[in-house]
UniProtKB/TrEMBL annotation:
Taxonomic source organism: Himantopus himantopus (Black-winged stilt)
Domain Kazal-like, chain residue ranges per copy: 479-534
Protein name per the record: Solute carrier organic anion transporter family member
Organism lineage string: Eukaryota, Metazoa, Chordata, Craniata, Vertebrata
Region (Disordered): 301-323
A Pfam family matched in the record: Kazal_2
Domain Major facilitator superfamily (MFS) profile: 45-677
Length: 721
């Protein structure tokens, strides 16, 4: 009996052990499932965030590609276009503090999804004026628009034009003026871009922190690097989309394209700028959909869990205490509000000492000044680069956008990656990073200096760049537009309907060329008996002319090729210094001040560079205009012709002056770092009481060297360069 009782005891003890083993097995199984669900969830979020980065970069770069189209469509100067471009930064600044502070405490994926919807709404709003402001009207002589009324270009006698036709024309113009006088449709473009800035705000701070919170630590840098890589691809597609839309006429689908008498090479040509915004807006809507189905929290990886609590415990509390769930939420909201108010007061008390500590760091303040001035240079240069290429080299908007998207943007991406790779491969310390950043800026702007020699001369335009006798123009163009050869014609100095004489000179209109007759219609119109158009052999002999301006000189295509080569090398060289400069910024700040320092850095770049640079660059470019267009109701419209030489000196000169000033600040940064470095070649990192840069070992600077390549980011990197 004793043996049997022992056996029974042993049997029951075994039975009591078995459930423990099973529960342990279940625990391991659930942990494995949790790990898979964590990896799956973060990868879904990674894919969605990458698509959002692509969408916002695409819409931002597409705006850059349509700068000249918007200027012509709304008849506004470059300075006003600069204000429209800067409105994105204004919208971003309006809510950046609220989003950064409160966003992390709320449902981050859904806030990003809401941001995508706002961004898409702004993008759609930009395109809306096309559907409300009527068809685009360009200046053309009646005989080139398939007119049934036979009118001589040189109106020597008003009786040549039937009175009823003139009255009808004036009545139509006055009616149109009454309609246009009360509306400035470009305001919708400005408001739409402002909304884009508001919608884009939560994507970067909330998306990156969400990845950093829930990704496995060793994978976080790789994931963030993937997001930034996709962000660089966005501008490529943005400019290519701009190239495609610029080929299509603005009113495609609304007018008979056979009746259009201008070509993409004409300065009055406006492409289907609105079409790309509809596409970009649709992409933004699609990009925001996944975030509405993602959870507020993901299970944290095992190696990143707090030792005192676990995700299983929090899950148990939320699932088992369903009866107290409602009251718990109310208490939580009250505590959250109270906690935020106390945290706000605490942050306010610590703000001024932190700011004083930060601005007391000479390396930080000097690098901040260098960055602000350099970004002024780069933002202004990139914003008006399409306009510069079009006006300087006589290229179409379509070709210009294609070249920038397919050549310049990849060069920038390669430069950014190369900078990180050099930092990792050669294990460069902070002093070396400062040298590399300074060297890339110096050689980049030195290359930019060579572009002064790669410009095209002004086209020969009678009355503007040359006189009617073929000499260089030096007098006031308004008086020089009239000459003896067109003195008998009733011409307006405000018209812009250029024709190309057989002598290779462009005339502002057929009337100012003294043309007496025309043949054909549309693009095939030929003007005859033009008294101002004479060959060099016989200046007094009347000659013919065709519709459209004459082409630039024979040397211009070659100069454009040289410009492209130097521009690509310059973009690469300047981009190489981006990563070392960013690492320099991070290494010379106290660890607890890094987030604050980056916030101040981003704010300063947006306020002091992103907003003003497009405006004053636009004002400077406007000073080089030779012939302004006229609005139908009077007033100055968009510029029709720029002085090529003056445009080159203003555009490149302003860029170089700002770049040179930034180099001086970079030299000062290097001097301070050299002064503070020890003779034993110590590497530099953040330390101590006064925010100086000192270090422990070379290895400490590169504990996570892969992170230098993958996570390098500065404001609007993907669209600004």
């Amino acid at each position: 009996m004793e043996i049997s009782s022992k056996e029974n005891t042993h049997f029951f003890s075994n039975n009591t052990i078995l459930p423990v083993d099973r529960s342990s097995f279940k625990s391991e199984s659930s942990a494995s499932k949790e790990k898979h669900s964590c990896c799956g969830g973060i990868k879904i979020f990674l894919g969605a965030l990458s698509f959002v980065y692509f969408a916002k970069a695409l819409s931002g770069s597409y705006l850059k590609s349509t700068i000249t189209q918007i200027e012509r469509r709304f008849d506004i100067p470059s300075s006003l276009v600069g204000v429209i471009d800067g409105s994105f930064e204004i919208g971003n600044l309006l809510i950046i503090i609220l989003v950064s502070y409160f966003g992390a405490k709320l449902h981050r994926p859904r806030i990003i999804g809401a941001g995508c919807l706002i961004m898409s709404a702004g993008t759609f709003l930009i395109a809306m004026p096309q559907f409300f402001m009527g068809r685009y009207r360009y200046e053309r002589f009646p005989s080139t628009i398939n007119s049934t009324v036979s009118i001589s270009p040189c109106l020597q006698d008003k009786s040549q034009t039937p009175l009823s036709a003139l009255e009808k024309s004036h009545t139509k113009i006055n009616a149109g003026c009454e309609k246009e006088a009360g509306s400035s449709m470009w305001i919708y473009v400005l408001l739409g871009n402002l909304l884009r800035g508001i919608g884009e705000t939560p994507i970067q701070p909330l998306g990156i922190t969400y990845i950093d919170d829930y990704a496995i630590e060793e994978n976080a840098a790789l994931y963030i690097g993937c997001v930034q890589t996709v962000a660089i691809i966005g501008p490529i597609f943005g400019f290519l989309l701009g190239s495609l839309c610029a080929k299509l006429y603005v009113d495609i689908g609304f007018v008979d394209l056979d009746s259009i008498t201008i070509t993409p090479k004409d300065v009055q040509w406006v492409g289907a700028w609105w079409l790309g915004y509809l596409i970009a807006g649709a992409i933004s809507v699609l990009a925001g959909i996944p975030f509405w189905f993602l959870p507020k929290h993901l299970p944290k990886p095992e190696n990143r869990k707090d030792s005192s609590t676990s995700s299983e415990q929090s899950k148990f509390i939320t699932e088992d205490n369903k009866e107290q769930h409602k009251s718990y939420q109310q208490v939580k909201i009250a505590e959250m509000a109270k906690g935020m108010s106390l945290e706000f007061l605490s942050s306010l008390l610590n703000f001024l000492p932190s700011l004083k500590n930060l601005f007391g760091n000479p390396v930080y303040i000097l690098y901040l000044c260098a960055s602000i001035i350099q970004f002024n240079s780069l933002i202004g240069m990139v914003t008006y680069k399409p306009k510069y290429i079009e006006q300087q080299y006589g290229q179409t908007s379509s070709k210009t956008n294609f070249v920038i998207g397919l050549i310049n943007i990849p060069a920038v991406a390669l430069g950014i990656f190369s900078g990180g790779l050099i930092m990792k491969k050669f294990r460069i310390n902070v002093l070396g990073a400062a040298k590399l950043s300074l060297g890339s800026s110096f050689f980049g702007y030195l290359l930019l200096l060579s572009l002064f020699a790669m410009g095209c001369e002004n086209s020969d335009v009678a009355g503007l760049t040359v006189s009617y006798h073929g000499t260089k123009q030096t007098t006031d163009y308004e008086q020089a537009l009239f000459s003896e050869c067109n003195s008998g014609c009733l011409c307006s100095k405000n018209d812009w309907d250029p024709i190309c004489g057989e002598n290779g000179v462009t005339y502002i209109s057929a009337c100012l060329a003294g043309c007496q007759a025309s043949n054909g219609s549309g693009e095939n119109t030929v003007f005859f008996n033009c008294s101002c158009v004479g060959t060099l052999e016989s200046p007094s002999q009347s000659s013919s002319a065709v519709v459209g301006p004459c082409q630039k000189g024979n040397e211009c295509p070659k100069m454009f090729l040289y410009f492209l080569v130097v521009s690509v090398i310059t973009s690469y060289t300047l981009s190489v210094g981006g990563t070392p400069g960013y690492i320099l910024l991070l290494r010379c700040i106290k660890p607890h001040l890094k987030s604050f320092a980056l916030g101040i850095y981003t704010l300063a770049i947006r306020v002091l560079a992103g907003i003003p640079a497009p405006v004053y660059f636009g004002v400077a470019i406007d000073t080089t205009c030779l012939k302004w267009g006229s609005k139908r109701c009077g007033g100055r419209g968009a510029c029709r012709l720029y002085d090529s030489s003056a445009l080159r000196y203003v555009y490149l000169g302003l860029t170089l002056v700002l770049g040179t000033v930034s180099i001086f600040f970079s030299v000062a940064v290097l001097w301070v770092l050299r002064k503070r470095s020890s003779p034993q070649d110590e590497t530099l990192s953040a330390n101590g009481e006064r925010g100086t840069c000192g270090t422990k070992s070379r290895k400490d600077n590169f504990v996570n060297s892969d992170h230098l390549i993958q996570t390098t980011y500065w404001p609007e990197k993907e669209t600004r360069l």
